[in-house]
Amino acid sequence: MDKLSYALGIGIGTQLSGMGASNLNIDDFALAIKDVIAGNKLQVSNEEAQTLVNNFFAEQQAKQEAAAAEAGKVAKAVGEDFLAENAKKEGVVVLPSGLQYEVIAEGNDKKPSATSKVKCHYEGTLIDGTKFDSSYDRGEPATFGLNQVIAGWTEGVQLMGEGAKYRFFIPYNLAYGERGAGASIPPYAALVFVVELIEVL
């Protein structure tokens, strides 16, 4: 075995697999590589090849978008069901926006406005309990403006006085919406945050 050739094949194969091209005819694929390297006459014109490749990628994108849309419907429904059941629990307050919260500990009378800068400790999880962020884990609180965060935070933290600790249940439209945020927060995700308001700055 020529290991370099095999290594190059691994790279190309991995790339193609990631593109959803697992059903390619490997013999024809190898033949095309041989013809290009050898300078042989191509059995498919460059123009036709480009059209075929463009159509393939368009089909793959359509499939991915359809799968994402279906997954989004499921995630949205799961989040809505969770919030509907959660709203029935004792101590949970439901606001007109759809934001839900429960008081873990009350603070003093100093509350922030929608544009205040605050210092908070927090922990964020998905509704299945998967933790995606925590200032507690980092060992220091976070400081930010309430007009620079998700809408659920902007609304919710204004209810808190310094020293308060609340748990917020945030519907997707008050969180990261239809797109989610990175790999850890999927589209249409309802989120749960425990927030401790340390100081209004």
TrEMBL record:
Enzyme class per UniProt:
isomerase
Q: Which key words tag this protein in UniProt?
A: Isomerase, Rotamase, Signal
* Enzyme Commission identifier(s): 5.2.1.8
Under the heading InterPro entries, the entry gives:
PPIase_dom_sf, PPIase_FKBP_dom, PPIase_FKBP_N, PPIase_FKBP_N_sf
Q: Which Pfam families match?
A: FKBP_C, FKBP_N
Per its record, what are the GO molecular function terms?
A: peptidyl-prolyl cis-trans isomerase activity
Catalyses:
[protein]-peptidylproline (omega=180) = [protein]-peptidylproline (omega=0)
User: Ranges for the PPIase FKBP-type domain?
Assistant: 115-201
Q: What is one GO biological process annotated to this record?
A: protein folding
Gene3D superfamilies, per database record: 3.10.50.40, Peptidyl-prolyl cis-trans isomerase, FKBP-type, N-terminal domain (1.10.287.460)
In which family does this protein belong, per the annotation? Belongs to the FKBP-type PPIase family.
Q: What name has this protein been given in UniProt? A: Peptidyl-prolyl cis-trans isomerase
Q: Which organism is it from?
A: Prevotella intermedia ZT
Its ancestry begins with:
Bacteria, Pseudomonadati, Bacteroidota, Bacteroidia, Bacteroidales
